[in-house]
Specification:
Largest sheet: 5 strands, antiparallel
Order of helices and strands: HEEEEEEEEEEEEEEEEEEEEEEEEEEEEE
Number of strands: 29
Number of domains: 1
CATH topology: Methylamine Dehydrogenase, Chain H
Helix content: under 10%
Number of helices: 1
Shape: globular
């Protein structure tokens, strides 16, 4: 039997399996997009249905025209998905942001276009609240950029580009700038970028209409020396910004002044048990929708640290649970706050946990699902899916 015929038969078989899975999955369950950080056809964006009751994930579709899709971002209207696309991840000026239209209820994606990130090892995407601007952080080249979004959801060329400069105390990891994430403030007036190489959270004024960034009056705040800030998240009340520090395995809390965008450091707390003396590096953090609990990942210790959030935003460690896989890379929490999903990238699996609403502790919802190199999880809430596929 020739190779072409074998591949054709396999394609038909995979399609039939996905179709059967789609029929078995409840159409009312939310969609979950998970990227596979790999080259070629392995570097797909996987679409799953998540059973809110059981925590079971069912694969229903794979989009394979993307390589090394390290990070994903959803438009506020839930009609468009944006992904990193890199034929050679880390190769200067070859990386792009790919824009997709979500065309149906089974995770199908239609490529709209791609635009340059203007950097390399592009590692983070964020869409502003208006859906008019996509922000990107470029790790290796230490820069951030803002790309305009057209009415169709397609991307224009970057309208704003800012190159970070400087270094910090760790000669091995902080000899230059390494922009690792960028997010918008709850009022959409500011953007904040965590730069691992500078030990800084940089603050920018955001003009979403023109997709431009400019330094804020307080241009940056510092994290503890050698901390290596990686990812950022706001408390639902908008009064607090939390930063997970990759190198020092900690979370730093800043109070946030909405009117000016000013950040005021308040607390730094460890993510690892005191007795641990191995090598570990933090990756991601998420907060429950009710603002009561925060979770952060430890890669090396391979665990998820859980914290209770007090009324003033301060954190208290309540437990550290195994991530059920190697190298927990990314987290997402369901809108009802009942489930937490964890992408264990080098462990090649995605684990689902139940969140105890009374204690905040995590409990496995079942055996993790196997998939290659899961790097980012984006959840499409059920209540908004009626608009999927419709033009704005």
């Amino acid at each position: 039997m020739n190779l072409f015929l074998v591949r054709s038969m396999l394609s038909v078989l995979v399609g039939a399996m996905l179709s059967s899975s789609m029929q078995e999955a409840n159409a009312d369950d939310p969609l979950v997009f998970i990227s596979a950080f790999a080259a070629g056809e392995e570097g797909a964006i996987h679409a799953y249905r998540l059973d809110n009751e059981t925590g079971v994930l069912k694969l229903i579709h794979r989009t394979t025209d993307v390589e090394h899709p390290f990070f994903l971002a959803l438009a506020p209207n839930r009609k468009f998905l944006y992904s990193i696309h890199a034929a050679a991840f880390g190769s200067k000026d070859t990386e792009q942001v790919a824009a997709y239209e979500i065309t149906g209820h089974a995770g199908q994606l239609r490529l709209l276009n791609r635009q340059s990130t203007l950097g390399s090892a592009s590692c983070y995407l964020n869409v502003d609240a208006t859906g008019k601007t996509v922000l990107v952080a470029n790790y290796s080249t230490g820069s951030v950029a803002a790309l305009p979004v057209e009415e169709s959801g397609a991307l224009g060329k970057a309208a704003s580009f800012i190159q970070h400069a400087g270094s910090s105390v760790d000669p091995g990891r902080q000899k230059g700038p390494y922009a690792h994430s960028i997010i918008t403030s709850p009022n959409n007036r500011f953007a904040y970028a965590a730069d691992l190489g500078l030990d800084q959270v940089l603050s920018y004024r955001l003009n979403a209409k023109t997709s431009t960034l400019s330094p804020n009056d307080q241009p940056f705040v510092r994290t503890p020396p050698g901390a290596g800030p990686r990812h950022l998240t706001f408390h639902p009340n908008g009064k607090h910004l939390y930063v997970i520090n990759e190198l020092k395995n900690s979370v730093t809390l800043f109070d946030h002044v909405a009117e000016t965008g000013m950040l005021i450091e308040q607390q730094t707390i460890a993510t690892l048990p005191e007795e641990f003396d191995g090598t570990s590096h933090c990756a991601d953090l998420k907060i429950t929708p009710d603002g009561r609990y925060l979770y952060g990942t430890n890669r090396g210790h391979d665990s998820i640290a859980a914290y209770r959030i007090s009324e003033n935003g301060r954190l208290t460690l309540i437990g550290i649970e195994p991530s059920l896989g190697k190298g927990p890379q990314n987290l997402v929490i369901t809108p009802d706050g009942k489930l937490l999903l964890c992408a264990n990238m080098p462990g090649d699996n995605v684990a689902v946990f139940r969140i105890d609403s009374q204690s905040g502790m995590l409990k496995s919802a079942g055996t993790p699902i196997a998939m290659p190199k899961p790097s980012c999880i984006m959840l499409l809430p059920q209540k908004t899916r009626s608009a999927v596929g419709q033009q704005p």
